[in-house]
């Protein structure tokens, strides 16, 4: 499988230029890390495959916001005096993300090894994950997901979200492109760049950059100053699982609200009434997670986990993905086989 990249961006215009990428062999943090190759860039950072001083593979995530900064040799500089406060804010948010990740310990959440500052910016050394993100698996048919595999994956991800909430945190950017599936089929939740701390179950004001994704973000994340809580992550995970089940993302929440206000049917069809082949109650639990109004959703990930747990005797069995292998016959006609 391909290397899993982090911090994907949906806006290519905001991606870093290749001239901004550190060259292979670049040493960081007093030689503890050495850049191997460029992996990916997004609106908030650049990721590299690297080696640590024990010759282990790691992913290095560099805080680099091309809108506000540029590369001068290896150093990161603000594009102008007016951009300096924005770059400083980005670095503070990046460090906050690292602190959040360091506080989490769950088999289905990406692990951070170290955070450090170099080249006038900040870096995270993250575990190296081989796999594809869930969006690639669904849209590009990188592998086949059966109902049983989706059920197993769902329970592990709900458990991971419960752990996040138990630490008084919210992810605030759960979506298929932020769910990595390892080569062994284990799901891993990544990218905590939009995460927030909570107080009495209410999300505090975010100090970094917020991310809203049509189809996955609940209506409260669209509103300026909107109040978010555990139910916000529950909606986003429900939308991601809906995508896995249906093969397409649900209609965005704003359009759903407009339809309801105008007296039209909700454009998102309930899974429990349209899909078969899943354990009793599993699809209804996703439908509840996808309720437009926060009060109608599961109020905690633990509540959701309890709703689906009785149907999972094999909770810890990995999601075994089917790998597509293309075999070229002598006639030159490729045929897809399943391994």
Automatic annotation (TrEMBL):
Question: What is an example of a GO molecular function annotated in this UniProt entry?
Answer: protein serine/threonine kinase activity
- What Gene3D superfamilies has UniProt attached to this entry? Phosphorylase Kinase, domain 1, Transferase(Phosphotransferase) domain 1
The organism sits in which domain of life? Bacteria
What keywords are annotated for this sequence in UniProt? ATP-binding, Kinase, Nucleotide-binding, Serine/threonine-protein kinase, Transferase
Keyword Hydrolase among UniProt keywords: no
The Protein kinase domain covers which part of the protein?
Answer: 33-315
* Annotated protein name in UniProt: Serine/threonine protein kinase
Q: Which organism is it from?
A: Tabrizicola piscis
């Amino acid at each position: 499988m391909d290397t899993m990249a982090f911090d994907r961006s949906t806006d290519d215009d905001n991606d870093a230029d290749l001239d901004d990428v550190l060259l292979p062999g670049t040493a960081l943090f007093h030689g503890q890390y050495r850049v191997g190759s460029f992996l990916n860039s997004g609106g908030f950072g650049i990721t590299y495959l690297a080696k640590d001083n024990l010759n282990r593979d790691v992913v290095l995530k560099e805080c680099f916001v091309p809108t506000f900064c540029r590369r001068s040799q290896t150093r990161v500089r603000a594009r102008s005096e007016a951009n300096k406060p924005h770059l400083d804010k980005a670095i503070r948010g990046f460090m906050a993300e690292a602190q959040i990740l360091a506080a989490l310990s769950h088999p289905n959440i990406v692990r951070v090894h170290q955070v450090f500052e170099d080249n006038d910016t900040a870096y995270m050394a993250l575990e190296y994950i081989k796999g594809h993100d869930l969006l690639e698996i669904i849209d590009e048919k990188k592998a086949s997901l059966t109902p049983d595999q989706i059920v197993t994956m769902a329970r592990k991800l709900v458990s991971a979200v419960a752990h996040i909430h138990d630490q008084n945190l919210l992810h605030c950017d759960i979506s298929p492109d932020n769910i990595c599936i390892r080569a062994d089929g284990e799901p891993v939740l990544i990218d905590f760049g939009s995460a927030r701390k909570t107080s009495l179950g209410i999300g505090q004001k975010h100090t970094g950059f917020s991310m809203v994704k049509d189809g996955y973000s609940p209506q409260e994340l669209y509103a300026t100053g909107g109040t978010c809580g555990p139910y916000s992550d529950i909606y986003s995970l429900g939308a991601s699982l809906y995508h896995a089940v249906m093969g397409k993302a649900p209609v965005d929440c704003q359009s759903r609200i407009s339809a309801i206000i105008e007296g039209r049917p909700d454009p998102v069809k309930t899974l429990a009434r349209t899909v078969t082949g899943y354990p009793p109650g599993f699809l209804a639990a996703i439908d509840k997670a996808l309720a437009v109004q926060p009060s109608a959703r599961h109020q905690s990930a633990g509540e959701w986990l309890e709703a689906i747990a009785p149907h999972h005797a094999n909770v810890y069995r990995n999601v075994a993905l089917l790998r597509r292998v293309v075999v070229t016959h002598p006639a030159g006609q490729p045929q897809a086989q399943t391994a």
